[in-house]
Amino acid sequence: xxxxxxxxxxxxxxxxxxxxxxxxxxxxxxxxxxxxxxxxxxxxxxxxxxxxxxxxxxxxxxxxxxxxxxxxxxxxxxxxxxxxxxxxxxxxxxxxxxxxxxxxxxxxxxxxxxxxxxxxxxxxxxxxxxxxxxxxxxxxxxxxxxxxxxxxxxxxxxxxxxxxxxxxxxxxxxxxxxxxxxxxxxxxxxxxxxxxxxxxxxxxxxxxxxxxxxxxxxxxxxxxxxxxxxxxxxxxxxxxxxxxxxxxxxxxxxxxxxxxxxxxxxxxxxxxxxxxxxxxxxxxxxxxxxxxxxxxxxxxxxxxxxxxxxxxxxxxxxxxxxxxxxxxxxxxxxxxxxxxxxxxxxxxxxxxxxxxxxxxxxxxxxxxxxxxxxxxxxxxxxxxxxxxxxxxxxxxxxxxxxxxxxxxxxxxxxxxxxxxxxxxxxxxxxxxxxxxxxxxxxxxxxxxxxxxxxxxxxxxxxxxxxxxxxxxxxxxxxxxxxxxxxxxxxxxxxxxxxxxxxxxxxxxxxxxxxxxxxxxxxxxxxxxxx
Length: 530
Ligand code: ADP
Known about the structure:
The chain is of the alpha+beta class. The protein has helices at 2-7, 9-64, 71-89, 124-132, 178-228, 243-299, 306-336, 349-359, 361-367, 386-402, 433-436, 460-470, 509-515; strands at residues 93-98, 112-113, 138-145, 151-163, 167-176, 345-348, 371-374, 381-384, 409-415, 419-426, 474-480, 484-492. It has a five-stranded antiparallel sheet with strand order 2-1-5-4-3, sandwiched between helices. Strands 7-9-10-12-11 form a five-stranded mixed sheet. Strand 11 (474-480) and strand 12 form a beta hairpin. The radius of gyration is 52 Å and the shape is rod-shaped. Mean pLDDT is 88; it is low at 519-530. It binds adenosine-5'-diphosphate (ADP).
């Protein structure tokens, strides 16, 4: 219910309109029921008062015209008066009680009542009113006890009568309101049924009306979702002239211009990519020739005059860099063209890290950096393309040595059930936050004038990040000026799995421990310099 409430506009609108009309119908129903009830009571009351007045007058005139003098005659007179009251008033509940405070009389008949179980309903208030006011009628609403001890609403009307010789008596006649109650109940039931039917009807009507509005909106929402997820060809059907049709037309117009702009951009970028790829390919042949010629010159440099020998050496190193740049450019253009094929196989990443370290050991020695491998063990095998991952590691370790200022470089490998992570930590120059933001950009260097020992095309990290993402992995960096850098590569252990966390922390342990923080691991670029 809660999910429908949140997700369905139709459900919400129908529920709200049904609830509001339900409340309105309830208020109107209660008002009608109360006023009908009052009206029924009032008309029954006036009828009852009339009725009892008539009965009392008839009885009084019977007494007035009587010449009874002894107890038996008075008793008989009272009985026939009661029969007459009963006949005129159509009520069987009659009580005749001698008004208290009169002289005791041997002739006066005893109190008599046919109220039965309902005797107690004649309240003291009513009695004192009747006792105090001769010739007036008083009434009171009461609950009569009917058959099977059920209570029935009723009215008791009281007045005084004067019985010859015996003195004043209180006469009470009780009337049942059962008929009026039954009528009221019937009206209430009818109102209830009609109210429920009306709420259902309003719910159904608003469901149909809202459907007319919501269906095109739903289509619009689904279409824009598809458009947002990359399906640029989707359009909303345009029907009619109303506001929904206007929305559809403007949406479609927007989608058209978006599609054409994206197509233009895609064409442009395709041209650029093809250009880079073509140029790189075209340069390969002349470069190979230059390389061969350069090698010949380089081999013979000892026989040249010193200045020419230096030139041959310079030519040799620059041609080497050129070749490296060209192969990086070709690799990047392959990624851009989306033509990269992974050749995955189960690979032990510790061996791979050892391999990469070994290949860079001589460079590390010239820089005076100590290369350390920390691999606590675990699930170290992963389904990866070893050639690409070795290249990433060589790049990261090479950079760490290059910018590590002769400090040790620590390569850590750790894993959990889902992922394997390799972190390359150096304690060198580090980078500022602004530099970290660009570190994976193509051809970006923190300090282009910095002395380089190896390659250094400015494409290394850009390719490394492509290599990581083609594995569904992450390549992230933490760096701080003066405190060094830590590059962390996280790869899913099985091909195509989605990463949720990394087995190694970033910033690295030594940094968080020095700051006195607990082992918080920001993921996907969280944290200050990450
Ligand atoms: P290259 O190393 O060929 O210049 P990269 O893409 O590998 O290109 O690196 C780009 C830039 O990032 C480097 O020029 C350097 O300024 C910076 N960088 C990379 N790794 C580190 C590191 N460990 N410490 C400091 N700066 C680094």
